[in-house]
Automatic annotation (TrEMBL):
PANTHER family the UniProt entry points to: 2-AMINO-4-HYDROXY-6-HYDROXYMETHYLDIHYDROPTERIDINE PYROPHOSPHOKINASE
Alphabetical list of Gene3D superfamilies matching this protein: 3.30.1130.10, 7,8-Dihydro-6-hydroxymethylpterin-pyrophosphokinase HPPK (3.30.70.560)
Protein name: Bifunctional folate synthesis protein
Reaction catalysis annotation: 7,8-dihydroneopterin = 6-hydroxymethyl-7,8-dihydropterin + glycolaldehyde; 6-hydroxymethyl-7,8-dihydropterin + ATP = (7,8-dihydropterin-6-yl)methyl diphosphate + AMP + H(+)
Family to which this protein belongs: Belongs to the DHNA family. In the N-terminal section; belongs to the DHNA family.
General function of this protein: Catalyzes the conversion of 7,8-dihydroneopterin to 6-hydroxymethyl-7,8-dihydropterin.
GO annotation (BP), single: tetrahydrofolate biosynthetic process
EC code(s) of this entry: 4.1.2.25, 2.7.6.3
Biased composition (Polar residues): 342-352
Region annotation (Disordered) ranges: 322-352
Amino acid sequence: MSGLLSGELAGDVVSLRGLRARGRHGVLDAERELGQVFIADIDLAVDTRTAAVTDDLGDAVDYSLVAADVVAVLSGEPVNLIEVLAGRVAAACLAHAGVSAVAVAVHKPQAPVGVPFDDVVITVVRRRADLLDATPARPVDAVVALGSNLGDRAAVLAAAVADLAATDGLEVVGVSGVVETAAVGLPGSEPQPDYLNAVVRLRSALSPRDLLRACRAVEAAHGRGAAVRAVEPRWGARTLDVDVLTCGVLVAADGPGPDDGDGGAPALQLPHPRAGVRAFVLVPWARLAPDDVLPGAGRVADVLAELAAADPSAVADVRSRPDIVLPGSNPRGWRSGAARATGSTSDAGSGA
Ligand SMILES: Nc1ncnc2c1ncn2[C@@H]1O[C@H](COP(=O)(O)OP(=O)(O)OP(=O)(O)O)[C@@H](O)[C@H]1O
Ligand SMILES: Nc1nc2c(c(=O)[nH]1)N=C(CO)CN2
């Protein structure tokens, strides 16, 4: 088979062909129930010049590790579209340091096509910047988490929702009730005031990284700019934290990027790596949108149930604050016609 990357990139290429696994990807119920074979061909753009001198595996991209990660995606969480599957395979490859770009062909030779055929193949080419810096062709669902444990916490959260709603490219489509939670700090750290936490659903026309930048701008407007961030302890008390939990179904991660004139591109991992183990995130999120999916973990309400089984006190300790109503909050959840956040308070109650 000819190189997938040929014509796309100059340089060295490591290829893996015919990686295969059974998966349950597809739109049809039968595909979800029975599963079928998925095959991936991969071209990894790498720079082999150092390894060629040192003969040290540490200077090379270990193709067996990449292969294992690709097979884990093929056999992992079911998705509807092979476009998503190919994108996740590409992200898994780009997670390996030293892979600067990747071409992925995903084959679905047993697809329910309805006529005799040999194969369905989708080929995608991704460079690092394609995953987290691409502006979507149409707005996508995104979910962010708010937390505050310094200052007038309720006022800060309300202002943060209004700020998000006022950001170009963002529309607030759902706001959870507010919960109060003991600060989860690092072991041995100073005691901190309790947090108020909430979750906000957005329609985002921004790239994932620009969404993170927008969240940073809202934090900065409430006393947590770059200077404060630079000196605060990890998981220390803060006036406002705005974390990106999900951006559509995207699974991707990268570190700081080249300088973009604003101190560089902030590191971003999606979904947020700790979303699935935080009661202060899952409780308000599951009340707002229980059927949302946390990529890689499952339905939010199910992830919360698993956490409640594993760590009952963490979930039990989340206290509802129905007396605090954020702009746009709807106690019946966003699907039931949640108001848009316009800065006005809405229904009393928090869905708690
Ligand atoms: N999904 C994400 N949302 C927000 N920040 C992220 C995300 N993924 C990676 N980051 C990076 O995490 C780093 C720490 O961010 P921040 O100071 O908000 O962390 P934190 O809120 O103290 O801790 P935690 O990330 O555990 O919530 C930042 O450099 C940011 O670029
Ligand atoms: N209860 C609670 N604890 C935390 C929180 C938070 O939002 N709520 N955020 C943290 C870092 O983002 C660390 N610990």
